Amino acid sequence: MTSTRTRRCAMLAAAAFLLPVSLGVAAPAFADTPAAGPFGPACASVPKEGSGSLAGMAEDPVATAASHNPALSTLFTAVKKAGLVDTLNNAQNITVFAPSNAAFAKIPKADLAKILGDKAQLTKILTYHVVGEKITPKQMEKGTFKTLEGGSLTTAGYGDEFTVNKTAKVVCGDVQTANATVNIIDTVLTPK
What we know:
seven-stranded mixed beta sheet
């Protein structure tokens, strides 16, 4: 009888612990764990369905996925002008820190036009936003990564708040495409 009672108590204790965890109401030890999947305030503005949605982007390689996302239209235009569509679409397990349209809008129009008209400079800037490995949110907590441009960028943060090079905020992170992880950022990064 004591053995049965002990087992029941153990099962009730396990259920009392697991039920809140399974409902997403984790105990304090789990409260600060980063959420799995896309995170950040701008994720809410991604289309809910279709090729530009998070599910749609997961089916396409990264440049094609960006072409379907309304928030990344300026980036896709720049990628086309630099001749990087095939390069990005054919790369495997890369991470792209993708400037949103709002990030490009921070650049004065004349300066942006000059950058878009200079293929060498544009290529240098765009490849600075690409890391040749898949980066997880855990790695972004305090990381330094070599870019395809040859320089390095740094990331810092926790949970769903990350910065890149201390200036750009990740506004929608950990978006998966067929060949890349995309972190949409609010500022265009410039290589040194």
